[in-house]
Structure formats: structure tokens, C-alpha cells
Amino acid sequence: MTKPQKKLWVASILFAAFFGIAPRVGAMHIMEGYLPLGFCVAWGMISLPFLIKGFFSIQKKLQENRKNITMLAMSGAFIFVISSLKIPSVTGSCSHMTGTGLGAILFGPCAVSILGIIVLVFQAVLLAHGGLTSLGANTFSMAIAGPFLSYGIFWVCKKCRIKRRAGVFLAAALGDLFTYCVTSFQLALAYPSEHGGIFASVAKFLAVFAPTQIPLAIVEGCLTIVIMITLENYAQPELKNVGYSKEP
Questions:
Q1: pLDDT per residue as tens digits for the range 96-128
Q2: pTM of whole model > 0.85?
Q3: Fewer Cβ within 10 Å of end Cβ, the chain: N or C?
Q4: Which helix (DSSP H) or strand (DSSP E) does residue 95 occupy?
């Protein structure tokens, strides 16, 4: 066996060993029955204030202009479609995009929490994607944490006069990545590693998601830019109604 062949062989052994001991996860959504009951209740309670705030946020937007419901429905449909496409991972798991960055940019992060939980309920019931017992945890990671980061990044980019399209891309892509980071943390809290505790477990879960989720986040950023360009060209009145102004 030549030296390069030996290196390849050793690398294959390390790869197999690493992913062989990695925790088993089904997708970015935490599946039904995977979290202990106490964690399910806790994440549900943590998510509740954001959902209440989101309900009032959507109510205010619709009171300002009933036509905003069109853009709201479009944002919800985008989340449902794009987050329902599960992409197989080389680690034996699967990942998906979230689509929440678009709604966060248009309506703010709180409103997206309502859109997100509606999508998660439909996916759990109709697609067996995620679960009802893990609804609180999935809502927090995908419909609260991710959108808040997306909105914050877009706002910072706007204040720093970074090009609008770059801000949209960063908001959507990093919001997607942050979602799976939070999911990994949630899983690690419930199942800390025997050697290294929570942080070692976080690293293992992140390693399971990363090979697929990083390119998916880039794709989501690009798709969100395309959606925004389309809306700017064909739905300027609707964008103005929700308070989005086209920047140079």
C-alpha cells in the first residue's frame, strides 16, 4: 500500500469512527418522542411570550392594511415549501432550509413565530416531519431564534449601508445556520455526552448537520435574494404596505 493510499485509509477509518459514534438525529426538526417531557414543556413555555407578541404584531399589520395578508400568506407559504424539502446528508441524517429569513425581513421576527408554528403543526401532522411533543423546541429554534438573528443581521447591514442584496443574503443564510446551531444545543441539553458534557454533545450534533446545512444555507440566501428582486419588480405597492423600502 502506497503512502497516499495509507493516508486515505486512515482518513476513512477516522471518518467512520467519528460518525459512527455521533448521536442519531432525523432532521433539523426534532422528531416526535425524542425529547424528554420536561424539555418539551420548558421549550413550549419559553416560546409562548414570543408567540403572543407575534400574534399582536400580525394583528397590527393587518389593521394597518388588510392587503398585507397577501404578503403574509406568501411568506408563510415560502416557509412551508422550502422547509418541507428534506435533503439527505452524508452522515445518514437529513437537513432542510427554513425560509424564515424572508418573513423576518418583511414583517419582523415576532410575526414569523406565528407563521413558523403553523407550518410546524402542518408538517408534524401531514408529513410526519418533526412532532407535536417537540413543537415548542422546534418553534424556538426555527421560528424564533433563526428569525431574530436574520432580522438583526439585516438591520445591522442596513445601518452600516451594506448593499441591500448582501444584507438579504447574510440574513437568510446565517439565520438558517443559527437555527441548526440552536437545535444542536437543544439536543445537547437533553442528551449531554458522557465524556465532555453538553459542549461535546453540541459539537457532535453540529458535525451531523454541517455537511449538508452549510451549502443549504447558501442556497437559501440566494433563493431569498431572487424572491426579493422579484417582489421589488412586481409587487412594489405591497412591499411599501409592509414598510419595506427599496434601497439603492
A1: 889 999 999 999 999 999 999 999 999 888 887
A2: no
A3: C
A4: strand 94-95
